What we know:
Distance between the termini: 17 Å
Largest sheet: none
Number of strands: 0
Mean pLDDT: 88
Strand content: under 5%
Helix content: over 70%
Low-confidence stretches: none
Radius of gyration: 18 Å
Oligomer: single chain
Amino acid sequence: MYKQESVKIRVKYSFIKKLAYFQVLCATGIILFWIYFFIFENSNPDFSEIYLSHERAFPVPDLIYLTPCLILGALGLLKKKDYGFLFSLLAGSSMIFLSVLDTSFYILQGLFTAHITRGIIFGFIFITLFLSGIIILIILWRNSIILIASHHR
Length: 153
């Protein structure tokens, strides 16, 4: 019976490792978005000042808070450290918050309909960010006992 539980923990931990790699992928996507924004959009006169002002407010939370949380969470999960669980929870909830904030701004400013193609692209980004946060939180919640057990081995 003990051997069977050990296999179960190993299988679920491999799922946690996949979550860690997913978080690194999310962090990479965020970094690439901001590189793209500052190279191509930041000083583009075709974009409204409202849009640019809004976007310019997000590098700090995205790059100084969310991205480090994703990376620290991933490293901690891979190393089976408590801080991995904590930073992953912080990252997942931040992804949900930032996506809802962005979505509400875009709706209130009519930015989804002003440029249909950009609206679709940003709608996809916001939905992806929101769902990624939900996925991180669900996986952590469903596997929290495994994370705790693996830490105390």
